[in-house]
Request: fold
Amino acid sequence: MGTEVWVTWIPAVLALVAAGVSGWLLWSARKTAEETTRRSETVRRMTAAVEANAEKANHAATTATEQAERAWEQVKLSRSQLDEAREERHASTQAEQWEWAYALTTAARELVNSCHELIRMSLDTQVAPHYRTAADRHYRQAGQRWQDTMIKAIARTQPPLEMQQQVATFAEVHQRLHGQLGVLLRAVETNTLTEGDTLTKQVHGMRHELNNAHRNLQRIVSTSLSAPAPQGTQTNGTAAQAGPPQSKAAQINASQQTQLTPAVPPSAGRTDGAQQPTQNRALTPAEPPTQQLGNRPTRS
Reply:
């Protein structure tokens, strides 16, 4: 009887154990399934986030590329504007140099002519005193204009050293001739001047020296204006160019024998893809005529 009961309970216990193990396995499988579901959901969310971030990164890259292109366009525009500003500045500087060189040589020519006229009237005994006084006044006015023009031209154009030396030489010769002219005028007023004396020879010698200094000044001015522009001023294959002022040529009196012949100004415009070389024509000085003041016949 006891053995039968024991045999009956063994399958029941085994069945209960099997049921418990099955339940635990079922619960464990459900937990594993839920965990797998959560992980797959997390992976799906992470994938969606990665795709969204990739889209944002792609959009940001596209935006950065567009901004870089716009920035490069701005850089090219700024460079073009800088080149234009440099060309305009070079053209303005060149035009100012032409103007001041024109004014400087014109003032020098006027001063030389007024010196010649004053010497001629001082040595001519038939000239009335008031004409001599008028010539002296004109000479002093020409000298004042020359000094003012020389100071402003040197201060605003900063000429090369050789040109400054020629200007200084011309001014120094004129100062020495100025002193001789004062002595000559006093001698004429006191009627103590004789033909062929030392003072007359000195005045003639200083006159020729002034002519030579004026020729050298014209030469160095023409050389400095005809020199080619430096390479730093050429941008985008185009060199800025400027011509001499044409309006001032009509203001020169024929009696002053202007030494400048204005050249045709080269074009300063820019062409697409074509390079215009710099063509600054040199000013052509006109040699002053030789004046034989010592052998002039006496006026009737």
